[in-house]
Amino acid sequence: MVSTLPLLHRWWRPLFYTSTTHVTPLLTGGYLCRRSKEIVHRHLGTVAVRFGSQTGTAEDFASILVKAGKDLQMPMVLSCLQEATIESLRDSSVAVNIIVISNYGNGEPPDNAAKFYQSVLSAGGESQSQSPKPTDTLLAGRHHAIFGLGNKRAYPERYQKVGRCLEAQLQQLGSTPLLPLGEGDDSADIEGDFEAWEAAILQRLKTWLSEQADGMEGQPKSPSTSANHRDKPEDTSRYTDTISVPITIATQAWTPFDALKQQVVHCDLQVDCASLRLEEKHSLRASWSPRECWHFSLGPSDTDSHLPTFTAGDHVGIYAANSPETVERALDLFHLSEHPHQWGDDLNATDMATILAPLQAQRRGGPFFWPQNLIPDPLTFFTWWCDIVGPPTAALRRALRDAGAPSHSTALHALAELPFPTCLSLASRLQPRLYSISSAPHTQRLDMTVARVDTDLGEGVHAGVSSTYLASLSVGDVLAAYTRASSMRFPSDSSRPMVLIAAGTGIAPLRSLWQERQRRLSEHSSSDSSPPLGECIVYFGCNAANEDYYYADEMQQCLQEGSLSEVIPVFTYGTETGSASQKLTFVQDIIAQQGQRLYHIVHEKNGILYVCGAANGMCSGVRKALTSIWMDYGKLSAEEAELELIRLESQGQYQEDCF
Known about the structure:
Rossmann fold; globular; 659 residues; 19% strand
C-alpha cells in the first residue's frame, strides 16, 4: 500500500499521550496566560530544550519536559545537541537554554553531544583539563538550566562530571542559571529526581517568563527576535509534530543490510558503517562452564570491501535483532501472529507512519537505518527496530501511571497495557550494542570478546539482545556494524611502560593494545629508527585456568617474543583448577599487594595504567586499591590521592574502559 499525501499527527494520538495531570497540580497558578505568551513570543523568543543522549533516557526526559511546557502554553522547542554549538546558546531568538544531558562511560558526553561539549569547554581558551578562567561575557544576559544524568554507584568518581563541567563553564561565560544543576541518579530513583526538577523548572519558567512579560508589555517588537536574527536557527523539523514525505508500507523485510546496500543511513555522527562477515567463532570458556563467552572475528563482506576504520582500544557498535522467540511473544501479545506482515485492515501507511514517527525522530545511540518514507511490517518492526526486551522508557512509564495501569520491568509488557497500535509511539528504537574491539587494525580483522548475558528483570529471565544474536550467528553470516573512538589510547611514545589490568571480557581492549605492541616490536626489529618497547605487565582476573583464562596461549606467545614482559593471572578461587579456597582473590587484591612496584612504574618511569572491567566491580576495586597505594607511597591524604588519580587521568596515565 502506498500513500503520497502529507502526513500529519491527528486523531491517532492517544489520550494518555496528551495528559498533563502529572504537571498542573505541581504548578502554582497553572498555565502561562495568553497575554504573557504573546509578549514572550514577541520579545523574548523560545525556550530551547536540547538533549545529549546515549541510551535514550535524556532524550525521553527532554521530550517529556517539552510536552509538559507546551501544554502549559510555554514556547518550547526540542532539538539534539548534535546540531548545537556555543553560538547556539547566544541565539537572540532564544529566551532560555535548557540542557538535558547524560554522563556516558568514563565521564564523557554522549556521542551526539561531544562536539557541543567541547565547543563550550574550549570557549575562551578553556579545555576540560584546565582550571576555569575569570568570568567572561560571551553569554552575558543569557539564562539556562541543566539536568544531568549519571550513575553514582557505578561511576562515583565521575558522577555528573559532564553536567557539572557544563554548569560551571556556562556560569563562567556569563550565563545565569534559573535553577541550580539538576542531578538524576540512575542507581537510585532517576525518574523521581527528574520529576522533582521538572516541576521546579516549569514553575521557575512560568514565574520568570511572566515577570519578563510584565516588564515588556507595551514595548515594540524587539528586532533581536525577528526572523532575520544573525544566528542561523537549528533544524528542529525532525522533532515537530508534522511530517511531509511519501509513505510506503514495506512489502518485504527491511534490515540494516538493505539500508547499507542502498546507502540509506540517517546519522549526524561521523562514524564508519559497514556490513561485515563472520569469519571465525569459537568458545573461550570450558565446555562444562555454565556461562558462555565467545570470540568473534569479523572481516569485510561482499558488499563492503573494507573494515570500518578503528585504532587499538576503540569500540564497535553491533546492530542486533531480537530473538525469534521474543518477536513471537510480541506478535502474540498484539494479536498479529496470524498475519505478521500486516498491521491491520483498517491501518494504512499514513496511519502507521503517524504512530511510528516518534521512533524515527529519536536521536540516541549510534547511526540508524530506518528511512522516513518506509514503514516496516510488524515482523520486521519487532525484529529489527523496536526495543521490547529492555526496560520501558520514561515516557512509557509515565503513560502507564497516568492511565492507571500496572508498572512493568520490560517494554513489551508495558506496551501491552496501553491501546494498540498507538502505544508504539512510546516505544524506543532498538539501539546498537557497543563492544570493545579486541584486535589491532594491522591484523586486517575486527575481533570481539563477548559474554552471553541473561538478566532477570522480574518478569522472567531475558536473554541479552546483542549477545544472544551474536551467539546465534554462524561463520559466513553477515551483520551490520560501525566503529567509534574510545578514550583508551596507545601511547605515542611506545617506550613508556604499560600496565594492563582486566578481568573477564575486560581483556578485549587490552588484547588490541598488546597486538599493537606486537606490530611495533616487529617494526623495531626490522628498523633501527623505530623506538624500543617499554615493559608491559598484564594482570588478568578469572575463575580458573581451566575455565576462563581467555587468550592464555596468545599471552604466552607474546611473552616469548617480547611484546609482553610479564603476565600475572589472578584466579578468583586462589588455584589454577578453581578448587575451593578459604578466601576469594580478586585483581584489586593483587594490585594492592604490588603497590610499591606500580607506584614506581607510574611516577618514576612515566608509565601508563590501563583498566577494563565492570564499573561497579573490578574497576571500582582497582581504583580504591590505587588510591590506597598513592596514600601509602605518595604520603597523601585520601582526598589528595584521589585528586592525583584525576590528574593522571587528565594526562592519559590512567585510562579506564568500564562497562
